[in-house]
Amino acid sequence: MDREQARRQARELVSQMSLEEKASQLRFNAPAIERLGIPAYNWWNEALHGVARAGTATVFPQAIGLAAIFDEDIIEEIADIISTEGRAKYNAQSALGDRDIYKGLTFWSPNINIFRDPRWGRGQETYGEDPYLTGRMGAGFVRGIQGKGQYLKAAACAKHMAVHSGPESLRHEFDAKVSRYDLWDTYLPAFETLVKEAGVEAVMGAYNRVNGEVCCGSPTLASILREMWGFQGHFVSDCGAISDFHQHHKVTDTAPESAALAINNGCDLNCGNTYLHLLQAVRDGLVSENAITQACERLFTTRFLLGLFADDCEYDQIPYAVNDCERHAQAALKAAERSMVLLKNDGVLPINLSAVRSVAVIGPNANSIPALEGNYNGTSSRYVTYLEGIRAACREAGVRVNYSEGCHLFKDSSRNDTLEGDRFAEAVAAAQISDVSVLVLGLDPFMEGEEGDAGNGLCSGDKNDLELPDIQKKLLARIIAVGKPVVVLVASGSALRVEEGNAIMQVWYSGQAGGTAAANLIFGKASPSGKLPVTFYKSVGDLPEFTDYSMRGRTYRYFKGEALYPFGFGLSYTRFRYTEPQFDANSSVLTVKIKNIGPRDAEEVCEVYIKPMEFDSHGLNWSLCAFGRVALSAGEEKRVRLPIPDRAYECVTEDGRRIKAGRHFRLYVGSSQPDSVSAAKLGVSPAELDIVK
Predict the structure, then answer these.
(1) Is the pTM of this model over 0.85?
(2) CATH of the domain spanning 576-692, picked from 3.30.530.20, 3.30.565.10, 2.60.40.10, 3.40.50.620
(3) Which of 99, 152, 225, 535 is the most exposed place for a label (fewest CB within 10 A)?
(4) Given 71, 125, 213, 238, the catalytic residue
(5) CA nearest 274: which of 244, 307, 251, 299?
(6) Tens digit of pLDDT for each residue in 625-667?
(7) Which of 182, 448, 451, 604 is catalytic?
(8) CA distance 665 to 692
(9) 238 is catalytic
(10) CATH 3.40.50.1700 region(s) of the chain?
């Protein structure tokens, strides 16, 4: 069904409603209108990395881990699985009369905010710090969620527009001050990509203000969306954001005034209860019936596009049995393998199981399910913790596993009645009788996440620094002091400063198959191929103030210091050589030969960065402009094709306009960005060339 047909049907249906009925449909928990055959519908559903908060579903790696895969086609395949499971659950549950929250087909994902500061607890929900990578991953996700059929398989939602990335404790009152340069260079491009290219059906506004305007009632953002970009879908508020107008931002005095400000500036759907005051706003002359009618028509256009009033929707036949199936579980495993990033390896990895008799598995995240899940998660029936994955691999080889929790995740002792470090001795004993120790450290989604959802009340879900909890640092020091090889797995949704150990792997919140994936990489069944979608800094001292929304000094594009582990960085068990780069100016396609010159089969992520030779735009460093994933057997060589988008040749002016950045550019293609840390640690032969475009 095309949008115009859906819009006509929506207009016809809405024209039969009273003002009260139309206003009732603008709330996320829209009631039934029985006389018109309209069932109740709850718009609020989540699918960040699997169908969330509604029972059993396949749980993929957290979004930041999916970004580390650097492959939008894989993200599209994952999102297609998510929407299949969403339809399967919707079909079964609605047939049984269950139309509760988290049971609909309007998924409030993906989160395409820019992860500008590693302290932000919700950064785990994003695709990292780079606007181009975020846009590509987000576009793939939207395509997978919405499908390619006659109807929308499900509706995706780009959130949170705009300029939103913490601090969580201030989000209900914060005014993000941002230059027009940063707005158009960093904060808006991914939203534009999802609207104009991917056709995202919904956009969600953020809690904060931007340059004085509340995001869910902003005439500036409404104009950008509807007039500049031609957005045709519906706009939804973040939950409770409209009540913030009068309660926290103080831009209005009453709830009816807040409702009026939102709907008059294009907010069609209220997650919250402020639109209960719409009728009063009409009586007060603050809102016209036409504004309510327009919002209602937009929402019903989406419902018609989803086939919710059709008898020929192809997705109605998806059975519940496809939910949590074996094929989806295998996809979750492959995603987890590809998402993990090897940050350090002195040669201890991969471990040859035939050469060891025992392995110690130690740490508070070793047997933790929350450390697999991340936030906005579903519930898997197939969790494999890191301990379980390593134990299964060792069992097959006849290798013993010695396990110790080692310490609490952040408290000084594991129980209230024991002394500090009460599990240290057990952990050291396990390490002493083992040939190698695998230490699983980090955070979990109760320590970093969304304000209100997080157990970390001290920081409202954000981090104060980039360090492991003190008790974990003490544990790590004791295990290293044993004098045997130590492999560190770091489970977190953000950058932490971890340098100690013979090998370090960032495993993120890796989803239901995280333990199996980690074991496959540790013991060489697969080779690491993930790349960092964020910069790992040495300390918060390298960063501007958390509340400073200028990009100066932030992210790999503007940071002038030396990173601990740079954006785009990730080691492999093999090495790659890049040769014979060629650029076709007419098609704007770069091709390059990549050869696996190491001993193992592996997948490689090739990254292309661009720098204009005639402009120095705000001190911008190199920028990612293309990437591709390729599988290469040991000794194999392939020529890889990497299209460069037209926008890569543009720069943003001081007043926010995009212009051509001259004619001369330099391209760099390799396993990382062109920085000294990556060059020293990767030992990869990249390729560079100057082009005229």
Answers:
(1) yes
(2) 2.60.40.10
(3) 99
(4) 238
(5) 244
(6) 999 999 999 999 999 999 999 999 999 999 999 999 999 999 9
(7) 448
(8) 6
(9) yes
(10) 326-534
Question: CA torsion sign, 231 to 234 to 238 to 243?
Answer: positive
Give me the residue label for tokens 């306009």.
657
Q: Tokens in use for 314? A: 């192809």
In the numeric block, which tokens belong to residue 526? 């697969």
* Helix (H) or strand (E) run with residue 182 in it: helix 180-182
Residue 506 CA to residue 565 CA, distance in Å, equals: 11
Judge whether 461 and 532 are in contact, CB under 8 Å.
no
Q: Which CATH architecture has domain 3-314?
A: Alpha-Beta Barrel (3.20)
3 state SS of 214: strand
pLDDT value of position 459: 67
Confidence band of 619 (pLDDT split at 50, 70, 90): confident
Q: Give CA–CA dist 283/70, Å, rounded.
A: 52
> Using only C-alpha atoms, what is the Rg of the chain?
25
Residue among 4, 10, 1, 5 nearest 300 (CA): 10
Which of 113, 110, 104 has the alpha carbon at shortest distance from 215? 113
Instruction: Provide CATH 2.60.40.10 ranges for the chain.
Output: 576-692
Q: Are 107 and 156 in contact (CB under 8 A)?
A: yes
Q: Is 448 a catalytic residue?
A: yes
Cα 111 from Cα 126, distance rounded (Å) = 5
Q: Domain 326-534 - what CATH class?
A: alpha beta
Amino acid at 528: P
- Which residues of the chain does CATH 3.20.20.300 include? 3-314
Cα 326 to Cα 57, 77, 383, 445, 648: the distances in Å are 12, 15, 13, 26, 40
pLDDT score of 684: 67
